[in-house]
Amino acid sequence: MSTLAPALPRRTPLTSFAGTWHLTRFMLRRDRVRLTVWTVSLLALYAYFVTALSTVYPTAEDRQGRADLMQQPASVFLGGPNYGLDDYTIGAMFANEMTLWMIALLGIMNMFEVVRNTRAEEESGRAELVRSGAVGRHAAVAASLLTVVIANVVFAVLGSALLISAGDLAVEDTFALSTAIAVSGLVFAAVALVTSQLTTHGRGATGLALAVLGVAVLVRGIGDLQAEPGEHGTWLSWLSPIAWTQQMRAYVDLRWWPLALSVVAVVVLLALGAFLASKRDFDGALLAGGSGRAEATGTLSSPIAMAWRQQRTALFWWFLGTFVMFGATGTYLGEGVEEMMKDVPGGTEMFGDDPLTGFLAIMILYAALASAGYAIATTLRAKTEETEGRLEITLAKPVSRGRWFASHLAVVAVGAFVLTMISGALALWAGALVNGEVELGTFLKGGAAFLPAVAVYMALTAALYAWVPKITPVIWALFAFTCITGMFGPLFDLPDSVAGISPFWWVGRYPQEPIEASHMIGLSAVALVLFLAAFVGFRRRNIPA
User: Fold this and answer.
1) Is 471 exposed, middle or buried (0-12, 13-18, 19+ CB in 10 A)?
2) Contact, 316 vs 59, CB < 8 A?
3) In the prediction, which pLDDT does 4 show?
4) What contacts 345, CB < 8 A, 6 or more positions away?
5) DSSP for 367-383?
6) Is-contact 115 192, C-beta < 8 A?
7) If you compute the radius of gyration of the chain from its CA atoms, what whole number of angstroms results?
8) End-to-end Cα distance, the chain
9) Contact 185, 109 (CB under 8 A)
10) Angle at 78 between CA 77 and CA 81, to 5 degrees
11) What SS3 state is found at 289?
12) What pLDDT was estimated at residue 363?
């Protein structure tokens, strides 16, 4: 007598998404600190910028001087088509000058989140364990998208409320702009979903997605620069998702239909991501690399060579992005800054009596902040090596803990130095050459003054990782505090006891203020002590399997 095997349950489209909500709740809980820091930081930047604009440019005459500056090529590249320059209101200023930065920052947050919850989970093997349960094939992807959608909706709602209350801006235009920025951020989340199907590693997926963002910025900027007088962008501009938000003309002549382009782009990219996902095996990639050499070459025979290979791609993109940004910003250094600050209330508080040196001091500060951000992120890569199990394998070889840790930190230090001195100070100098001959030594000295403070950030990150890896996110809170006090400290008039928490406060504002040798020695000593503490802690702590 034969028996029939029980019929398998029929797979339906809905079963592919089984468990999506449970995974969404898990991702929101696991990433609550990360998402909160990102969202609060972006909202703080939102609120601060609109408040600062109202303070620095209180009258129509003040704002018109700013409008004249926005017609320069560097301003068009960074600010976009620049609507409403004839009657430059606070709303038009905010839309012209902040849209690019908010889309870029929100897009980066979304990319990191999507790759972290999809490609990186497959890479670590945790996704396979999750899918062994009652979870559908597409549940993890859907949950990662729902997570960033929730974060973007929170940003759009709270950001709109902040702008309306702090800047007294028009309600409809404010909600339109914030919604468009959030949807543009989701376009890059969908881009990250596509790149996650192409590469084997999360780093590759993130790098490809960041490259798409960089191309979008360049295409939009070049397209707007090619526009004839009186035109607002060209056909090339419209190829970039960033242009779709700027072309809504918020606070000038609001039109909603460009928002539909972003929505369509999200839908198309999600469909493309789903199609590509169906064409690859689990944990596979459509752009799988070659099998590689049977034995590593001599250039990979040391920990420092391995660290360089792991970090060189990230350093290249950081270098390219900051060099272009500070090179373009350097073109402001000249008569443009002096004209902008002439008779502007609040300009003295921000830039001092000499607008040119004050602006240069702030630009060098920005370059150092970018370098510190890079140093923190790449130092924490050691934590990733540990949590993903590669560190244990490395230390099983004849490689001491101290040698591996020192190699990793040495590559980070070289990268931070390059970003501060070359893509920061040197790029600013190169941009300033547009307005005539300038002294290179001033730029290099200003960049060098920040190196000890950047080293403090790097050493503190290493010490936190070495002793208590779980609390390493604290370093980002200190970094956010440094960004806010460094950029806006003179307007806040904080007491020295509070402002001094930031390592950058001790550097001062060269060339506006002289460099204090004692402060440089103090920062260097603090960095040295923290590095020693990091190595001691790393040698004593267990490395979990």
Assistant:
1) exposed
2) no
3) 52
4) 55, 56, 58, 62
5) HHHHHHHHHHHHHTHHH
6) yes
7) 25
8) 52
9) yes
10) 65
11) coil
12) 84
Q: Quote the pTM value.
A: 0.74
Strands (E), 426-537: none
SS3 track for 122-135: HHHCHHHHHHCCCC
Structure token pair of residue 242: 């960033």
Closest CA to 507 of 361, 377, 379, 373: 361
Q: Is the peptide bond before 229 cis (omega within 30 degrees of 0)?
A: no
Residue with tokens 């996650």: 196
pLDDT at 9: 55
Rounded-to-integer distance, Cα 108 and Cα 410, Å: 27
44: helix, strand or coil? helix
pLDDT at 522: 95
Which pair of structure tokens corresponds to residue 99?
């849209």
Judge whether 58 and 31 are in contact, CB under 8 Å.
no
Compute mean pLDDT per 10 residues along the chain, 545 residues long, and list them.
53 73 91 86 84 81 80 76 88 90 90 89 81 82 93 95 88 95 95 88 80 85 83 88 93 94 94 86 72 68 85 82 80 65 55 72 87 91 84 84 93 94 90 78 91 95 92 84 72 73 89 88 96 93 74
Q: For the stretch 372-394, what's the b/e string if a residue is b when 16 or more beta carbons lie within 10 angstroms of its beta carbon?
A: bbbbbbbbbbbbebbeeeebeeb
Block residue for tokens 């951020």: 185
pLDDT of 266: 94
Enumerate the H helices of 226-278 as residue ranges: 241-246, 257-278
Residue whose entry in the numeric block shows the structure tokens 């100070």: 425
**How confident is the model at residue 290, as a pLDDT?**
59
Query: In this structure, what DSSP letter does residue 217 have?
Result: H
